[in-house]
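input
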Amino acid sequence: MRTRFLLGRVLDLALVLLGVSFIVFSMIRLVPGDAVQIMLGANTEITPERVAELRARVGLDQPLLVQYWDWLSGAARLDFGTSIWTGRPVSAEIAAAMWPTLELTLLATLVGAGLSIPIGAFMARARGSGAEVAVRVGAIAGLTIPSFWLGILSILVVTSAFPGLSVLGYVPFTEDPLGNLQRMVLPVIALSLPMLANLSRLVRSAMLDAMGQDYVRTARAKGASARRVTYVHALRNALIPYVTSVGVAVGYMLGGAIVVEQVFAIPGLGRLVLGAISERNYPLVQATILVMTASFVFVNFAVDLLYAVLDPRVRR
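output
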């Protein structure tokens, strides 16, 4: 991989992260009203002393540029300040909630991205058959069914059929591997279905386009089997747009995890940020949103590098 290309992508990454940090920093400051009084809440006796104390505690008594620089330099050291209500470091609370979200997102990505390739290849190879139409209808249904509705429905069905089965909550894999995977099955299905449906249709379209190219016709003329033409020649080239779409889908999946975690009572980043918003925990809201958006940026950065490996023309 050329050094110039890599340095350009790293510079783009730094600029995007800087822009993301500025947007996240500005979000609460654009909300109408006094952020400190909003954090104190309507049920608290708001006195000038309490307002001044909290304003100094979260650094809102400084000029905006000073606030931004202090927050940005702290974030670069993974120091996001202290949670208003618990008194714990924000980075510690995020670290505790990050692993359930990472596990859920990783498993859902493996299921969605992994199954979409054989399903999409099957739809391309069996184009026009009854089985292909049935799978395509199922893919369209997967795109239209909301994850939260599918999650609620799956809970009702599974708990009715198996009353003793635990489907809610979270158990760390290191403590109880079987219990962890048991509780992860339904959330992973609910979160991965839209990704599976979308990527399957993408693989199908890309493979149909690839199977009409000259190199595929040449392989057929040389006597290559239909299976080899489909799964070796056409599929390899169809994976180039697929890789880009996987990166985008993972980013959106991080957002979808917020809803799924609420439905299945998983103590991840989604529940953490929603709880911080309801508690008006200003430092925790800022840091959690920054971590989630930065994760999306890093995923797409990795996809850019992988895309360049798959298609050397991108590096030119």
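quick obs: The mean pLDDT is 78.
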